[in-house]
Amino acid sequence: MFIYGYLNRVPSSRRLEREAGRNVELMWLTGRLAPDHKTIADFRRFNASAIRKTCARFVELCRRVGVLGGGCVAIDGSKFKAVNNRDRNFTSGKIALRISHLEESVSRYLDEMARVDRQEAQEAHIDRVTHLKAKLDRVREEVDRLSGIARQLKDTPDGQISLTDPDARSMATRGKGTGLVGYNVQTAVDTDTHLIVAHEVTTVGNDRAQLAPMARAAKDALKLEKLDAIADRGYFSGVEILACDKDSITATVPRPDTSGNRKKGMYVKADFVYDAEVDSYTCPAGKQLTYRYTREERGLKHRRYWQNDCQYCPLKSRCTTGKERRITRWEHEHLIDEMYDRMERDPNLMRVRRCTVEHPFGTLKAWMGATHFQMRKLKNVRAEMALHVLAYNIKRMINIVGIGPLMKAIAT
Length: 412
Description:
By secondary structure, the protein is an alpha+beta fold. It contains 13 helices and 13 strands. It folds into four domains: about 1-45, no CATH class; about 50-85 and about 170-255 and about 345-410, Ribonuclease H-like superfamily/Ribonuclease H (Nucleotidyltransferase, domain 5), CATH 3.30.420.10; about 85-160; about 270-330, no CATH class.
């Protein structure tokens, strides 16, 4: 029933209950059984682990059929709404802002009560004051409630509380000042077939630490010794790229341009040429920046390079505002250099990523419509996402191999 429901955009247990009694296809599929919505919902809730395994087994089936095995996946993440309104998600900043607004309301009501005391007649005065006192009491109750939530926030590791779905988190989206309360869904999509070979649901709003886990999951699902993984600049992390390299995964991720020097007409690190044989950089003026010392930042070792003639250089104004221009090089920077070489040799890599991994997200969100996950809590949401991915992969396989060969492969 659930596979049929997610294939036909009927994920709700109550809607499946109605369809089981009036939809001829579903009546044939269930043998005229008509379970109520509670039975249907409980099955999904109590079998979350088995549902996720079923999704993984279907990917294994696709691999055995011979559809998968290209050795390249595109990785991306997208935010999906949870069953939790933004007004029922709290952070310290939200609470402070709401309390300040409520305190302004209290001040306004007190001023209004003072004005009524001075100006209005006795009978009207009593009704007006009673009404204002009721409003004032409600505002004070809300301030007390928010203060209690603020005390609870001190015990939460990430400084957030969601009342409807306790695992949902407030996450920023691309629009300035916008966001949603939900989950960050990660997928690894085969670049040849557009099948989702691995997916995960997380409560972390950014993708920085997701590259290696998703690439490793895709490699395990495809049973490959080596794998190519492509992701956008949101996944760039030296730790993750190094972890991929250790697992025989070739990661290609553009480095985010965090420096504003290029817009100012100044030189950036890319304008300095590194010579591995002598371990030095050559600046745009032709001078060598030699190695000075190594320091550790956030568990990564960085080597520092500079030379002492910068203050006499005619290009200094375009290079640095300090005494000398210093260059920092990560001890595994060769991995990033190799990554940029790959992108120069194949300029379409990022286009392949965009055309591959964003299509499944668009399809899944179109199937879901302008709604949210049906279930609450991370474990259950993961099961629901597995049903979405399973339905997507089934439809994709029908388009690739046809219904007959797919049914035969499932039977064997």
